[in-house]
Each structure stands twice: as C-alpha cells, then as structure tokens.
C-alpha cells in the first residue's frame, strides 16, 4: 500500500506526478495484493480512519488524476493474474554501458500461462540506460534438507523468448503506447536495452 488510515495520504507523500505513478505501477505489478487507500485514485487529501462515519472535507475528484489512473494503472490491474504469483517472478539487474549495476532501476518480469510482462521503473530524477539480461541471484533448495544454492536466470527465461534468427518479438510500452520490434537472437544474447528518464 501507499497509504492507510495511520499514514499521510498517498498524494501528500508522493504528489500527483511521475513519482506517484511509478510507485503505483510497482504496487500494481509486484506479487501479492495491492491495496489502494480510500480516495487515492481521486487525489483526496483527507486521511480516513476506520472509525470515521463520514468525510469531514468537501473534496471533489481530481479528474486529471482519475483519467491518468484509468490510462496507466487500471489496465495493469485488469492483468493482475500475470503479476500476482511468485513462481515465474524474476528481479533483474540493469547494467550500464560502463559496466556497473544501476541501483536506481527496478526491473522485473512475471508470467502466467504463456503471457509475459517486463516492468521497468527508474526511481531517480536523472537519465540512465543499460541492459537487462541476467536476474539477481536467488536461493533455491537443493533437495538435501535446508541446503540452498544461489542461481541466476536469463531474460529469455523470464519472458519465454526463443533465440532464433528468424524470430521477432513485438512489445508495447504501456505508458507511451509505442510498439517496438526486436530480434529474438539479439534479445537472448545481449538482453534488452533500455533508456529511461526520470
């Protein structure tokens, strides 16, 4: 959640711009159950408690905010089945051209019954670029008691990609609506190149 009855409202904490929507997108696409506060989509500033019988402020919904939620958040919530589980969830490092991991970029994939998604969020007021290819290491039980080993997987595994020369993938950026096409071999061998603003 981004707010609840014990904390400041989401709009008070994060504003109504890109920072708010970036966090909201992550909340809507990470495994688990996203919870939205009362009046969050409408941009209400009144903090509601469980004991409240009625609103004390006479607030009207911010239509611009409601419309942006409808464009960017609601379509993701309609696809919650892709994001809700943990079996196919992979968290990726983003490597800059200089060779270091950009810790300000969150990149993860998830899937459900052949439908795959890649979510990328840049949590800094700056520009960055880099490659998404190898997942962060995670522990897997070996089958011998509590023994675990660290493993990493590739982007091709997370997105179910084939690396053939004659295979091409079309993907759509949820925010801009733009569509792109990439060669399967390029994606499997080099990863997915991204350029992100704030």
Notes on the structure:
This protein has 198 residues and is α+β, with helices and mostly antiparallel strands. 24% of the residues lie in helices and 27% in strands. The chain is built from seven helices and nine strands. It has helices at residues 10-14, 18-29, 63-72, 74-78, 80-83, 155-159, 184-190, and strands at 90-95, 105-112, 115-122, 128-135, 138-141, 148-151, 168-172, 179-183, 192-196. The strands form three sheets. It has a five-stranded antiparallel β-sheet with strand order 3-2-1-4-9. A two-stranded antiparallel sheet has the order 5-6. The two termini are 22 Å apart. 17% of the residues are buried.
**Number of helical elements:** 7
Largest sheet: 5 strands, antiparallel
Principal-axes shape call = globular
Strand order of the largest sheet: 3-2-1-4-9
Mean pLDDT: 91
Radius of gyration: 19 Å
As an assembly, this protein is single chain
Q: N- to C-terminal separation?
A: 22 Å
Unreliable spans: none
Structural class: alpha+beta
The portion of residues forming beta strands comes to 25-35%
Total number of beta strands: 9
How do the SSEs run, as a string of H and E?
HHHHHEEEEEEHEEHE
Portion in helices: 10-25%
Question: Summarize this, please?
Answer:
By secondary structure, the protein is an alpha+beta fold. It is built from seven helices and nine strands. The strands form three sheets. Strands 3-2-1-4-9 form a five-stranded antiparallel sheet.
């Amino acid at each position: 959640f981004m707010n609840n009855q014990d904390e400041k409202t989401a709009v008070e904490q994060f504003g109504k711009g890109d920072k708010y929507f970036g966090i909201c997108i992550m909340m809507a696409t990470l495994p688990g159950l996203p919870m939205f506060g009362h009046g969050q989509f409408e941009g209400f500033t009144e903090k509601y408690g469980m004991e409240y019988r009625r609103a004390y402020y006479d607030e009207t919904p911010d239509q611009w905010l409601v419309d942006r939620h409808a464009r960017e958040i609601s379509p993701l919530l309609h696809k919650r089945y892709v994001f809700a589980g943990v079996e196919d969830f992979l968290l990726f490092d983003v490597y800059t051209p200089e060779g270091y991991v950009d810790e300000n970029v969150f990149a993860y994939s998830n899937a459900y019954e052949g439908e795959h998604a890649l979510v990328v969020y840049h949590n800094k007021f700056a520009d960055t670029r880099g490659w998404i290819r190898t997942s962060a290491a995670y522990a897997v039980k070996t089958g011998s008691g509590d023994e675990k080993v660290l493993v990493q997987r590739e982007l091709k595994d997370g997105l179910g990609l084939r690396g053939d020369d004659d295979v091409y993938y079309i993907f759509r950026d949820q925010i801009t609506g733009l569509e792109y096409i990439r060669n399967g071999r390029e994606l499997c061998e080099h990863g997915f190149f991204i350029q992100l603003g704030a």
